[in-house]
Amino acid sequence: MKTAPDTEPAGALDLAPEHKRGFPLKSPLLAASGCWGFANEYANLIEMSLLGALITNPISRRPRRPAGGAHARSVAGGVALHTGLPNPGLSVALRRFAPKWRRMPCAVIVHLALHDAGEARKCVERLEDVENVLAIELGFRHDEDARAAAATVATAAQGLLPVVVQVPFSRTAEFSALAEQAGAQAVSVSAPPRAALTAAEGWFEGRMYGGGLCARTVQVVRELRRETDLPIIAAGGVHSAEQINALLSAGARAVQLESVVWIDAPNVNAMLQSWKH
């Protein structure tokens, strides 16, 4: 089993040094998909140049409307969200955001929410020549068919960009093995866990965000580090420098910052500054 070094020399963090384009990061701290928008929405609050990369909100091949009904519910230690992954679709996203991506002071990882391998081939091909796009992150539902997911990953991995698989929280070992076999360059742990809450209008289901999740994320990373040779990008409730260090000590090579940007932007800047070379 390969083991990541305890520390990375300045400028030497490359998650896929054998890949045709590599996967270089100037910082191990990334902006997580679903929390930071599609481009530079937080540029007035955050020192974006200190990010290793911005991971865009999920983008599908065709447009998606917001989910109907309530979108958020408070839970102990955080919030549960159900949005439906609204986005304009890839064609409009490229027209609207690619010029901004080119001017971003950090690299961009485009998060794709796809239906099948055919969509993966078409979408990845369109992203390969977009300036400053470093990699693709593929997101999957918690109930995704494993064989279909494997075909999607394998097709995306045939392209020129490194592929990160965002593994469902409840299926980390299964999807990490799938990602490794299908040719991905890294896994991100993980898509937020799901919550079900009772409400006056019936059941509310959504993904959970909040600082109370990080201890569970640390445990998942520790377990997964024994199962895969792929670099692990940790995500889930990271709201402090201490939590970042815990995840890196557990075996993560990089860490995604998510809901902390909604509630404590000054702290995000402090965390990014702490990793400035």
Report on this structure.
With 277 residues, the chain is an alpha/beta fold. It has one domain (13-274): Aldolase class I (TIM Barrel, Alpha-Beta Barrel), CATH 3.20.20.70. The protein is built from 8 helices and 14 strands. The chain has an 8-stranded parallel β-barrel with strand order 3-4-7-8-9-10-13-14, surrounded by 5 helices. It is globular.
Helix-strand blueprint:
Layout: E1 13-14, E2 24-25, E3 29-31, E4 53-55, E5 72-75, E6 78-81, H1 90-103, E7 107-113, H2 117-127, E8 133-139, H3 146-157, E9 163-168, H4 172-182, E10 186-191, E11 194-199, E12 202-209, H5 214-225, E13 232-234, H6 241-250, E14 254-257, H7 260-263, H8 265-274
Parallel strand pairs: 3-4, 3-14, 4-7, 7-8, 8-9, 9-10, 10-13, 13-14
Antiparallel strand pairs: 1-2, 5-6, 6-12, 11-12
Rg:
17 Å
- Strand/helix succession: EEEEEEHEHEHEHEEEHEHEHH
Portion of residues in helices? 25-40%
Total strand segments: 14
Total DSSP helices: 8
